[in-house]
Amino acid sequence: PYAKFFRSISFLGCLSCLLFTFSVMIVFSVLSPFILQDHFGISVVHYGQIVLLIGLAYLIGTVMNNRLLHWISSNSIVLIGCAIMFIGSFALLAVNYFGHNDAMWTTVLTAVTVVGTGFIFPNCYAYCLGLFPGNAGFAAALIGSVSLLGVFSVSAIISHINASAMSRLIFGNISMSVLTLFGFSIAMLRKS
Fold first, then answer.
1. Residues 6+ apart with CB under 8 A from 176
2. pTM (2 decimals)?
3. Angle (nearest 5°) at CA 63 between 31 and 103
4. DSSP letter at 35?
5. What local confidence, expressed as pLDDT, does residue 89 receive?
């Protein structure tokens, strides 16, 4: 049954959205100890609080997504999520470029980016499952497996880039934002 999933451009496009939005969280998890603890000197306790705030940002995004579904289509919500990801990612680039980077800006702007993922992930996941209602279990298994393999690949690539941890975080956030929008565009242009 897996062959039909790989023949569906819409499924593959939304699957890539899932992979890239999830990668934002993983890239932050991989790089944040180096940025927050080593570079900015944040204590372990404060680091834990910051990570909790990032998790809450995702929760806020999913709750807002749930509220918006009553008035706006899920496709529009995904586009709003992409816009939020772009705003957070490019604002982090701007703050870093102008030399105002600190733990607060890094946390707040990463949280903004993660709020955007809370708009995207649930809608793309539901869309992927909805394409194959008779095989939703197979689809969910494939989504989980491919997402883990993809996130592993993304984190390995980001970890091996020869740049500062902050530069890699910014690059990761911007590239994941662009790739998420690209995957969603493909999914919506080629509905199958």
1. 20, 21, 23, 24, 27, 85, 89, 154
2. 0.92
3. 30
4. I
5. 97
